[in-house]
């Protein structure tokens, strides 16, 4: 969702930079990039280590709430589709393909984005939505995508995951799916079953079929 369908990653960055300033420091660009796609707990650990500060559990919970509130305010004010994302989602939806939104974002915030996305369609484009607080383990664990596939009634071998983060790509590949990686804040190393593109502009059903074919060829070559 964040950084793949809509441009919300900048909101998380802005909120974390604000918190860093309040804690008396400045978050580095490298640390910010490392937080992309992670859970809030992991993101907080990265931020604190970057600043060289120690926070209690109570302080950490307050910091998380501050960031989530700041992101929620930004999301409610404006959401921007990333290039090609709305067109690809429309093509997949019109073709009748089973579709899930799988995000590390908690349901509280994800619903703000989901409502915005659904407003662009006559009926909801997703058959299933899976949020970060609804899974037994978060990305890079395969659990979120396996949960979505089970709910959709599809197998990993016939699934394409679209991701922009390292943890997301890792999760999708570990779940056994083919993965289309969209360039984002993080560099993702080439891997079997992964096809990388600069953006979703110009990506349609034929390109998704090519991603599946790439995965199958890689599996055949590995045998």
TrEMBL record:
Cofactor section: Mg(2+)
Keyword Cytoplasm attributed: no
GO molecular function: catalytic activity; metal ion binding
One family name in Pfam for this protein: HAD_2
InterPro entries: Beta-PGM-like (IPR051600), HAD-like_sf (IPR036412), HAD-SF_hydro_IA (IPR006439), HAD_2 (IPR041492), HAD_sf (IPR023214), PGP-like_dom2 (IPR023198)
Key words, A-Z: Carbohydrate metabolism, Magnesium, Metal-binding
Keyword Nucleus: no
NCBIfam families cross-referenced by the UniProt entry: HAD-SF-IA-v3 (TIGR01509)
Family from the record: Belongs to the HAD-like hydrolase superfamily. CbbY/CbbZ/Gph/YieH family.
Protein name: Haloacid dehalogenase superfamily, subfamily IA, variant 3 with third motif having DD or ED
The species this protein was found in: Blastococcus aurantiacus
């Amino acid at each position: 969702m964040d950084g793949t369908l809509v441009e919300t990653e900048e909101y998380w960055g802005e909120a974390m930079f604000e918190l860093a300033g309040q804690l008396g420091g400045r978050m580095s660009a490298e640390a910010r990039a490392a937080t992309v796609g992670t859970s809030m707990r992991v993101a907080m650990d990265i931020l604190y280590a970057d600043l060289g500060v120690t926070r209690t559990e109570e302080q950490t919970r307050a910091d998380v709430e501050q960031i989530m509130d700041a992101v929620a305010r930004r999301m409610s004010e404006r959401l921007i589709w990333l290039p090609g994302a709305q067109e690809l989602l429309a093509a997949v939806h019109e073709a009748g393909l089973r579709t899930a939104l799988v995000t590390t974002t908690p349901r509280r915030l994800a619903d703000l984005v989901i409502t915005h996305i659904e407003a662009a369609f006559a009926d909801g484009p997703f058959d299933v939505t899976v949020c970060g607080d609804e899974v037994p383990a978060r990305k890079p664990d395969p659990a979120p995508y396996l949960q979505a596939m089970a709910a959709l009634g599809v197998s990993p071998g016939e699934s394409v995951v679209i991701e922009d983060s390292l943890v997301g790509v890792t999760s999708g590949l570990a779940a056994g799916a083919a993965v289309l990686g969209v360039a984002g804040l993080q560099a993702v190393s080439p891997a079997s079953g992964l096809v990388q593109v600069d953006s979703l502009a110009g990506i349609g059903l034929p390109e998704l079929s090519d991603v599946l074919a790439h995965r199958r060829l890689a599996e055949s070559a590995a045998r």
